[in-house]
Every structure is written in C-alpha cells, then in structure tokens.
Amino acid sequence: MTLSAQLAAFVTQTSYDDLPHDARTMARRSLLDWLGSAIRGGSVEAVRIARGVAERGMAGSDATVLATGQRLSALGASFANGAASHVIELDDLHQGSTFHPAAPIIPAALAIAEREGSSGTELLRAIVLGYDVAIRIAEAVNPSHYRYWHPTGTCGVFGSATAVGVLLGLNEEQLMQALGSAGTQASGLWQFLADGAMSKALHTAHAAHDGIIAAELAQGGFTAAGAILEGPRGFFAATSETADATRITDRLGSHFKIVENGFKRHACCGHTHTAIDAALELRPSLQGREIEQVEIDTYRVALDITDRVDPHTPYEAKFSIQYAVATGLLEGRAGLEDFTDEHIADREIQRLLRRTDARENPSFTANYPAAWASTVRVTLDDGSRREATVQQPKGMPANPMTDSEIEQKFHDLVDGVVGADTAGEIIAAVGAMSASTTANDLVSAINSRAGAPVVSGSH
Asked: In degrees rounded to 5, what are phi and psi of residue 297?
C-alpha cells in the first residue's frame, strides 16, 4: 500500500467513538482558538482584499464568513476564513512540525459541515483526522522543507482535503485520490518575507480552498497520483532533502497528533516567542533602570525567519525577533496593539531596537525542533546584567496554557467584534458540540453579533 492508501484506510476506519478523550478535548480547544483568530482577523487589509476576490468569484450561500456574517459558497467562505485566521499570527501551532494546522484545515471543515448540516461530533472527528494526516506529513518533511516551503500551506492542503473527505463520507479509494489531488496543489514559498508581503494569509486561504476542491473531485471520480508522497516525482522528493516516511505511520491510529498541538500567546511569529517569554521574565527586575544593550541567543531557524533589526511595517514587525523582545521589555506584552505603525515609530522602541542584537546559539540549533530555546541578556546602565532562558514557548505542550487562559485569549480577541455576551455563547456552543448539535448551531451563535465594528489595533 502507498502511504496515501494507508492514511486513507486509517481515516475511513476511525469513528468518533474511536477517538480518545484527550483528542476530542484538544479538537474543541483548537476550534475555539481558531474561531478567535478567524473572527478578529477579518478587518485586516489583506483579508478584506481576499474576501473581495471570494465575493466576486466564489459567490453562493452555503457557508458563512465569520468576521462579517455574509454568505458565500463553501469555497468562498473557506478562502476568506482561511486568510482571516492566519493573518494576525495568533493561530495554533504544532511545534515538532513547525506547522499551524487550524488555519488551513478548520475553515474548509466548517464550511462543508455548515453546507452539509454535519453534526458537532462529525466536525470534531474531521478536525482530529485532518490534523493527524497533515501533521504527520509536515513532520516527515521537516526540517529541510522549511528552508523554502511554508508547511502551513504545503502540508495544510492534505489536512484540509482529509477533513472535507471525512465530512463528505468519502470511501477509502476516494480519500486516497483526494490526497493525490491535494498534493499536486500544495504550495507556499517563504520568499514573501523579503518584501514583508501578504502572501502568508494566501497560503492558508489557498490550502483550505484547494482541500475542498481535492475532496469534491475525488467524490466525483477524479483520479490522482496514488503515491503522491513517496513517489519519485512526489511531494517528498520535490520539497525535502531528508524526508522520513516512517513519520507517516508511526503509531498511526493509536496516537493522535492533535494532542501535541499548542497555542500562541503573542501576536507574532512563533519563532520569537521564547525570546519574548524570556524578556517578560526579566522585566520585573528592570523597572526604572536604563537598558544599555539587549542580546538574544536563539536557534538558526528563528534567525532565518525573524532576524529583522529595522522593521518598517506591522507585518515586518511580526517577523522581527528584535522588535518582539523590545516590545516585551518595554510593554510587558506582545499583543495586537503592539504591532501597529504608531508603535513601531515609538521613540523608546526605536531606541531599544538600536541596542538589540540577535545571534545563533549552536546548542539551541542542535535541539530544534524539539525545543525552541532562546536566551535574552540585558546590560543595564550600571554595567550589571540580567539573563533568562526559556526552552519552550508558553502555550506549547511542555509549557501549556490552561482552558481558562485559552478562553480569556478568545475574549480578548473577539469581545470588541461580537461583544462579551456573544463571545461567551460561542465558548458554550463549542463546549456543547455533540451528535445532537450541528455546525450550524455553532455558526448561529457567532452570527448573533457578527459584523460589529472591530476594535482598534487589529492590524
């Protein structure tokens, strides 16, 4: 059997009752966390542009754009929600694969579940299995894949196709074909970072949209490569120097990858988070003191993606480890309100940026991706030094957020959009998902106040 065939057999033979309690729990947590980003991200310029394209070219009434309440086709809603849920850089993260699973997978799953009237448990099952397939593929090609390719786009389309295939009731053969069509559409290159461009949101929008196309093509009998992963001209050969096919089948069916999922506390690239956490740990001892120098030691990939000492736009700032640490030291946070043109221009931020350096720590590089370690070292005006090291970002399984912290994050993101009462109703609706509820019940809770003005700082 090809790897796609083995994955398809596993997915089609796994019922909701087969899922362990911790996988079901993490599916609810991941869904709620994703909803916060999808609702809040709708005001960002890149998303408004993407939504306009969806309105013109993907019209319909099958599914809901969560930030506005408008109805589009399932393709259109998944495209718009996929862009919205990644753009503010607060969506979930699977650390071992350096992959954000929710943004490409859940928009497609929710759009189809809404169109099909799927139950709450069917949607949760689709999320768990979509995560499992995509994370395994991302782990198989990591870390060499990450040098050029954005796995949230490239691997996300496999998870999107899987989740949609579950909801459409595809059989084993059809799901294998869907994975083949997903793989031939996989895309997402890092070059956009050089321009501070909007492409990252397109990666998730595209992966969500194309996962639906792959599954619906397969449902109609459309054929695709059976060995799309391991074939000599397949995904592994084309996008990874050291692909490990054993990661696909390791404990397949007995260990569900969603339980390894993590959640982001800071509104910027995940590779800056341990450095921010170290800065926050140091901050109480720095109050009232002049900072002369800041040194950041981190792993190579973090520098490849976020070594940007002079960001000029909010998006560049989200990918600047120097800016993120400076913000953490000065503001005691790195939230949405800290990644604005006004905050970037702040005199104190600019002064501290000029005094901040980042460099590679070879031992941290050697331990990546198992650990994403960073050290922040601060020299004060009297020559004294303070130092803190954080091995795992807050929110990851080794340093987890509690349910109450995830719910508070959700309120912080969406209260200004839908109101605190509606936010509470959404939390309750996610918690109540069962065989007797539907995806439409969840969307109805969101729609009760969708489209209200978004609070400032969302860009």
From this structure: -105, 130
Neighbours of 223 (CB within 10 A): 12
Overall pTM surpassing 0.85 (yes/no): yes
Tracing tokens 């994403």 back to the chain, one arrives at 372
User: What whole-number distance in Å separates Cα of residue 438 and Cα of residue 430?
Assistant: 11
Amino acid 387 reads: E
Each residue of 114-145: pLDDT tens digit? 999 999 999 999 999 999 999 999 999 999 99
Confidence of residue 287 (pLDDT cuts 50, 70, 90): confident
* Residue 225, pLDDT above cutoff 60: yes
C-alpha–C-alpha distance, residues 338 and 310, integer Å: 15
Neighbours of 206 (CB within 10 A): 25
Q: Which of 446, 298, 305 lies closest to 375, judged by CA?
A: 298
Q: Looking at the domain covering 270-390, what would its CATH class be? A: alpha beta
Residue 455 has pLDDT above 80, yes or no: no
For 237, 398, 441, the CA distances from 131, given in Å and listed in that order, are 22, 19, 23
- 173 vs 112, 130, 271, CA distance in Å? 20, 17, 39
Rounded Cα distance, 48 and 83, in Å: 9
Domain 3-260 classification at class level: mainly alpha
The token pair at 277 is 């956490």
Q: Where on the phi/psi map is residue 290: left (φ > 0), alpha (ψ -120 to 50), or beta?
A: beta
Could you report the per-residue pLDDT of 38-76, keeping only the tens digit for each? Answer: 999 999 999 999 999 999 999 999 999 999 999 999 999
| 384-405 residue pLDDT tens | 999 999 999 999 999 999 999 9
> What's the Rg (C-alpha) of the chain?
21
Write down the pLDDT at residue 449: 63
Spacing of C-alpha 205 from chain mean position: 12
Strand ranges in 301-413 using DSSP code E only, listed in sequence order: 356-360, 374-380, 385-390
Around Cβ 252, how many Cβ atoms within 10 Å? 19
**Of 95, 136, 162, 132, nearest in space to 244 by CA:** 136
Cα–Cα distance between 430 and 38 in angstroms, integer?
15
Q: Would you state the pLDDT for residue 365?
A: 97
Listed by start position, the domains of the chain span 3-260, 270-390
* Host H or E run for residue 372: none
Query: H/E/C letters for each residue in 424-457?
Result: HHHHHHHHCCCCCCEHHHHHHHHHCCCCCCCCCC
Residues 290-323 pLDDT 10s: 999 999 999 999 999 999 999 999 999 999 999 9
